[in-house]
Request: fold
Amino acid sequence: MPAVTQIVRLNVNGDLREIGVPMHFTLLETLRYELGLTGSKQGCDKGDCGACTVILDGRPTLSCITPVCEAEGHSVITVEGLADADGPHPLQDAFDLHGAAQCGFCTPGILCSAIALLEQTTSPSRREVKEALAGNLCRCTGYSKIYDAVMSAAQRLQVEAHLDRSHR
Amino acid sequence: MAEATGLMSQYAEEAMYVAGGTDLIPNMKHRLFEPTHLIALKSVSELSGIREENGYLRIGAAETLAEVARHPGVQKLFPALSDAAGHVAGPQLRNAGTIGGNLCLDTRCTYYNQTSFWRGALGYCLKKDGTVCHVTSVGKKCVAAHSADTPPVLMTLGATITLAGPQRKRRVPIEDFFIADGICNTRRTPVEIVTEIRIPLSAANRRQAYAKLRQRKSIDFPLLTVAVSADIEGDGTVQSINGVVTALGARPRALSGWDDLAVGSTLDADMIDELAERAHEQCHPLENLIVDADWRRAMVPVYVRRVLEKLLIA
Reply:
């Protein structure tokens, strides 16, 4: 059966994108092969490894097992959308400072899972960080440096919030 | 709801329902499921909501496992269910996967959950596209393992499942929902939708506990799960007790002979050992999962003991 193309409207990293994609495409395939957003990785491609994690309406979601039509009408944030015009997200800085990325393949997914947690709370316990990242496989770091980076980014976000308040 | 079942009739049952898709999509990628159409259930309002009504806790089938795990009502009334739902796979999968989907989870086997290429090299298997079971090598019955976390807990709590088809709605006690056939291990017909799970509130007075064995503490499917619940009087006398194990055969197994042993006695260390031994006698896992069957069997009394000890302090 030939692939049927459909028009989908996606809100990716705050941009509205309208594209024609084969109907059977997953969100990950659409991001990588139609929108050129290759930050989200195609690892196991069956929902085990977490390398394809994106933030869908604030929740870490495996884009490799999400049919693209399920993402219509929802907000999709990928690793490309984490930094702003002023520079990287504090968590990305922390990954750099703590050596939390080695080969880097799991990093985009881990950043997305961790930022979804930091959006909920900027004072997570180490255990909460561990649990939030329990669906992301990393075979290089042994996780310690990743947890260190998330904890230090949380602290940075608390400081920034404090400075924002006193500035006003 | 009517639209969903109507669409299923229209596509002559070559379609499949999808809610979270966490089991269905990987299985489609492996060509284990080959539906012509998918009917999305996520936005069907009748399938959502967790609330108490008429002596039951009613859980809409499309509630995600994450939602069930963190729901205050579930945590308070049925902590073992919250525990089981909160330990399915990993966080992202619990954000998408639903409790209805967990009930309908396809059985799993070393020779089944593989790519089409892999399976083809072996001449396929009894469950899909082939005629031989590679586990039993002679058997004409599929022995793929039921691998879901919440059903054993729901069984110890006496839950009921509501199924809705195009014509009628029916309620099935969860112990009758599963059958011992690895090819299709539930009584749900392809046109039916699991709409809700009802757990009697009276079960909330029972002590309950849950434990599972898996290779890693996250992401992996269970190699063994044990759920128990019991009524224990103030002086420690057991009034009733039941246990369910799964991830061994095609359906969850309600452990038998526990009543004779424990009712009227206290749940002390010796009793726990005897119950664990009784469980061990009944469980005979096959080589249907990648981990050694003898070791999984040896872990049965270990995990039954652990879960009974949890029950003491529950």
Notes: Chain B has a mean pLDDT of 95. Chain B has two domains: 2-202, 207-312.
